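Let us work through a complete example step by step.
Step 1: write down the sequence.
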Amino acid sequence: MKSILITGCSSGIGYDAAFGLKEAGWRVFASCRSKKDCHRLSNLGFETVQLDYSNTSSINSAVDEVLEKSNGTLGALFNNGAFASPGAVEDLPTEALRQLFETNFFGYHELTRRVIPIMRRQGYGRIVNCSSVLGLVTVPWRGAYNASKFALEGLTHTLRIEMRDSPIKIILIEPGPITSDIRKNAIPHFEKWIDWENSVLSEKYKKIFIPRLYKEGKKDRFELPASAVTKKLIRALESKSPKACYYVTTSTYLAAFLKRALPTKFMDRVLAKA
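Step 2: predict the structure and record it as tokens.
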């Protein structure tokens, strides 16, 4: 049976991917950062492992546990777990950026390096990294997340080229707005790191950003359910000749087109309103 390790399965994209891949006949190892979420998924019939991207020993233990259960093989990895730490770049402490990169970027790299030798030995494998439309274009107030996804895009494209002569396929999935808890989960990071009331941008925070961050129930334009990502993920994993990148949502297709078509200054005007 084809096997896959999926990170960030507590909710959103990872949660839906775990169910979708299992239904498609894959043996799914669903990982979460917390034991509580692992236990919840275990009760739903999943093989789970605890994996915290910001902790090297957690990454190593998770991979060892998967290999022990699967006789030393792993067909695919879906790097998905991530979080946002919103706020204007000038108000963002370096430590906030550093902590976000530990999960959104360095953790992906560390886990990927652990599974590559496994896939080389077995002679096959696919590594799919979940990027974002914000790895193609930037929007205000999301500097930390934008930066992590731009970095992930660069690393993934490089790895794909370097692995051309190997049996391992390296793939990016780039979703736009997807129904998930990422906005809600970003609030504690915003409250921890951003002293917005004493910022020179305090009025913009108050009138523009905070109402968006704390809004409840209202979907973004072009927002799709997490199943839209799962559909592209299955295609990426099962296609004989997968694409380098898979776009999800109209926003991503539109952003990629406008980035190619518009001068940077005009594109800045468009993104400033996003």
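Step 3: interpret the result. The longest strand covers residues 168-175.
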